[in-house]
TrEMBL record:
The keyword Transmembrane helix applies. The chain crosses the membrane at residues 38-56, 62-79, 122-141. Belongs to the RER1 family. It comes from Hyphodiscus hymeniophilus. Pfam families: Rer1. This is Protein RER1. The keyword Transmembrane applies. It is a multi-pass membrane protein. Keywords: Membrane, Transmembrane, Transmembrane helix. The lineage of its organism: Eukaryota, Fungi, Dikarya, Ascomycota, Pezizomycotina. One of its GO terms (biological process) is protein retention in ER lumen. One of its GO terms (cellular component) is Golgi membrane. It comes from the Eukaryota.
Length: 168
């Protein structure tokens, strides 16, 4: 007698292949985790290829500007603490009138510096953004005509304003 196994639908086949590729990709990312300098050197090389592409093509300045703003945002999130002690001190002062500071009681716990954006996520997001930006430079729809010095000045102003707000 024939066995009553249901045939695999095309959707299930595609889903199985997608999950297989996803698992292989995640395994590759997991294996690359301890190699921090090499990951960042690869990202820096990719960024240099992107800059060379922009320089040679003499266009896509809006893509480069958008990438610069995104990388600046990632960098600032990387530098900031996940839990800002100054905000907690202000909150505590408002609640009970006492000044915040180091732990004074036995049950209070010191929390070490934890980044708002961990290094691996910073690297992964930056590399993905640079790759997307590089592919965008191959399509003329993203080549919006702009006067690039205005974008550079605007980016520097944004950098200066956001750097002043860093809790250093």
């Amino acid at each position: 007698m024939d066995s009553m196994e249901p045939e695999q639908t095309p959707f299930a086949a595609v889903s199985a292949q997608t999950s297989k590729v996803s698992r292989q990709y995640q395994a590759w990312l997991d294996k690359s985790t301890p190699y921090t300098p090499y990951r960042w050197l690869g990202t820096a090389g990719l960024l240099m290829v992107f800059f060379i592409r922009i320089f040679v093509a003499q266009g896509w300045y809006i893509v480069a500007y958008s990438l610069g703003i995104y990388l600046l945002n990632l960098f600032l999130a990387f530098l900031q603490p996940k839990f800002d002690p100054s905000n907690e001190a202000v909150d505590n002062e408002m609640e009970d009138g006492a000044a915040g500071g180091l732990p004074t009681k036995q049950d209070e716990e010191f929390r070490p510096f934890i980044r708002r954006l961990p290094e691996f996520k910073f690297w992964y997001s930056a590399t993905r953004a640079i790759t997307i930006g590089f592919f965008c430079t191959w399509f003329s729809i993203f080549d919006v005509p702009v006067f690039w010095p205005v974008l550079v000045v605007y980016w520097l102003i944004l950098f200066a304003l956001t750097s002043e707000s860093l809790p250093l």
